[in-house]
Amino acid sequence: MNPNNPSDIAILGMGTALPAHRVAQPEIAGLIAASLHDRPDLARFAKRIFRSCGVETRYTVEPSYLGPLEECRYIPSGEQSDIPTTKERMDTYQREALPLAIQAAEEAMRDAQISPEAITHLITVSCTGQYLPGLDVQLIQHMGLSARVNRLPLIFQGCAAGLKAIQMARDVVQGAPSSQVLIVCVELCTLHFQPVQDREALFAASFFGDAASASIVGMPEIGHRDYLSLGTGYSVLLPDSTADMTWKVSDYGYDLYLSPRIPKLLGVHLEEELGLLLHNEAPPELWAIHPGGRGIVDSVQEVMHLRPEQTKYSRDILKDYGNLSSNTILFVLQAMREDMKIREELSTEGIAMAFGPGLTAELMKFTYVPAVTSLMEEQDHVLL
Fold first, then answer.
1. Taking Cα atoms as reference points, which of 113, 195, 211 lies closest to residue 162?
2. pLDDT tens per residue across span 290-337
3. What is the model's pTM?
4. In this structure, are residues 328 and 193 in contact, taking their beta carbons and an 8 Å threshold?
5. How far apart are CA 295 and CA 269, in angstroms?
């Protein structure tokens, strides 16, 4: 435990993992446009949406997105009887999720300098695949975690679930300070691509990608460096928005609907919620915004009067990887921490936010604690 701040709870380590297949945005846009040869108006709209959504590359576990149109069952042209069923998509999820989860978890444990047997709680997060025994059981078996680890699956909660898991882990450690919580998120969004029938379907198709992420939440010990101290936060349901983001199981994967009203809704309601979170304090310097789409980042930047450099981390993650659902906020936080380390920044306060069906907003304060601060605390402890 940090002797100078015994109540400190932090993200002590982070890890991320990406599938092997990298897809450039023009390539996937070309596939979709080709599949709409009989709908030239929709094909033109697809190319425009894919160019303007803020994404340049994405990653997928499905190699057929990299091949010719006739080999990609997820984007059928003409006859649509061979579209992968939900069972086929879940079989692929079960095969591909575990290796990515292990890679991210092992990286997070190395970063936190913690051994598998020290993990007391395991939170697994996903909204793109389900099976039992689940990812939590497989991680215990493959990583040498204790069979008695407290398992907390957090499923089908959408993009907000990654930050929800971090806040859950903070609360666990607050109640039991010796806890070491491992959070593992896996989202294989590209497995749920649907044949395009209308413009609304193109919004979701234009920016989702696959990834895994992991983090360790606990009390910092002497020797921990460059961590993110977790402050207060909460979850809120925004009014009159239940139908604006939906995620339902269908016969051919999961059907996602994203309303074009979402950025506007966030712009209307976020300022008040962030005021409650900050208790009328001055806005912090760091902003970890879940880039659910370019319009969402634009809306937050406008309503909070942020500088372009304050939204750079979110925009860069969206550009390089797309929207990774529950993973995305950890990708943003990891990029932020690494940049702060390189620039040798001092202790800096921030806000993290993520959004999901409901319409749900997860909001949390945090502080970047650099190595220099940790070293000073260690020296003070020695002097004591």
1. 211
2. 999 999 999 999 999 999 999 999 999 999 999 999 999 999 999 999
3. 0.93
4. no
5. 15
